[in-house]
Amino acid sequence: MGSLRVRFGLLVGSAAFLVVLAAVGLYTTLHTAERTLDATLDAQVRLERIAELSGRLTEFGLAAVEAVSDNPGRPERLANARNEVDKALNAVDEGVSRAVAGAGGVLDRTQYTARARPLARLRSARAMLDRQVAQIQREPEPARRADAIRGALNAFGAVTGQPLTFLVEAERRAVEASAAEVRTLAVRMRVVAVAATVLIVLLLILLHRGLTRPILRRIEAIRAGAAAIGRGELDTRLAVASHDELGLLVASFNRMAARLKRREIRVAADRAALEEIVARATADLRGANARLEEIDRSRRRFFADVSHELRTPLTVILGECDLAARSPDTPDPFRPVIATIRKRALRLHRRVGDMLRVARSESGEIALERRPVGLAGILAEAVESCAPEAKRRRIALVLEPSEADVEVPADAEWLRQIVEGLIDNALRHATGATQVRLGFAPSGSGATVTVSDDGPGFPPEAEGLFERFRRGSGPGPAASGFGIGLALARWVVERHDGEIRLDSGRPGARVTLELPGEDVREDAA
């Protein structure tokens, strides 16, 4: 048995043989038990029919007495009793005939045939009593009829008693014999079951020891080897103990382990080379990042230094303009020029302050100074600051009037810078727009500020515009004007406990700022 197929075939064949053997024994036993039970039930049915026949014969005798009495009852009672006796005799005769037909041995048939004679005697006794009743009914004297019927009934009882007793005893013996056969069959079945169980258990133990256990032992060795390979022990090898299917599997396992070992060696070499490459690339990236950080620091430092350097002369210019405007020696024709210089210098001073705040925001140095401010003045300054750019682009910049000014706790400079940035975005990116509208209105305890245009609207991924360094597409290079970006705008609005939203119409785009009122907590970043 060098092949597992032969071994498993033997195992399956043995199990199938045992199953078939057990099925045949069970079928034979059940068939015998069924026949015995059927015979017992038939004998019980015949006993019941014999008892019924005895009752019918008694009723027939009573009907005969009534028929010859001085005051006979219904004339049909005797006929009905006679018919019932005949039916009972036929039923018993039919049961005995069926038993004779189903009997297997000659002795059984002889016993069943012997029961036909008492039935014939019972038929003769019924016919004899019937004739005697007919003769007695013709007797005119009541006394003689009574004596005659008494003698006829005694003779009828003597004739029918012995056959009925014989039939009852015969059927009772048949029931007892069937019961004894059932008990004997049960004992035999228990003995056969115990013997078959012992035989099957012994055979299974032999098959397990000789076939199943060695296979399981070899499979366990393969499982342990696979677990060792899984733990990285690629030097694991299994012994090839046979040339069957498991032996071929073990040989394939050993070849697989050898290939994995060779591949691990190659992977380790490639990983070392890759780590060296990654290390060099990482060093280069670190150097590049350091240089970029240095450049960015230099840019922010330059940005802040330029802002600081510009603020000093602008402050001097504003101071000189104020002195010249207040001086009585200044000629009147020069006063409008001085006012214009002061206005332009003040706007440039705000621009420098905006640049300084942006430089600080990039370095994380942002501080909000929240105090109650009116939106009308802030929005008017934003419109005035962006008006030249709107005029250059031939776009109408409109500040929608409100019924009353609205005060909100906010940082005036940051809020103005945010609005200017939103207007600048609309002027630069709303392709084909003809007007940009800026408005505000009370909203609960706070206010709502809107910047809208009649351009093509925001792209579908509008929420992505809030990401840092995300830029929208424009028709060309950025024009003059200073924008702050939506990321910084959202950051500042959220620090005001507010909300910023982007909405697209058909056509047009709208940015909405929701700013809370005095009842909202103030928190400076």
Q: Low-confidence parts, pLDDT < 50 over ≥5 residues?
A: 473-483, 519-525
What letter string, H or E per element, gives the SSE order? HHHHHHHEHEEHEEHEE
The biggest sheet amounts to: 5 strands, mixed
The assembly state of the depicted protein chains is single chain
What's the tally of helices?
Answer: 10
What is the arithmetic mean of pLDDT?
A: 78
Shape, principal axes of CA atoms: elongated
Count of strand segments: 7
Which band does the percent of strand residues land in? Answer: 5-15%
Q: Over all CA atoms, what is the radius of gyration?
A: 61 Å
Largest beta sheet: strand ordering: 2-4-5-7-6
Q: Report how far apart the termini are.
A: 86 Å
Find the structural class using helix and strand composition.
Answer: alpha+beta
Q: Helix share of residues?
A: over 70%
Kindly list the characteristics that best describe this protein:
single chain; 525 residues; alpha+beta; two-stranded antiparallel sheet; 8% strand; elongated; disordered C terminus
Summed up:
The chain has helices at 4-67, 76-102, 106-114, 116-137, 142-230, 245-326, 334-362, 375-392, 412-429, 486-495; strands at residues 371-374, 396-399, 407-410, 435-443, 446-453, 499-504, 509-515. The chain has 525 residues and is of the alpha+beta class.
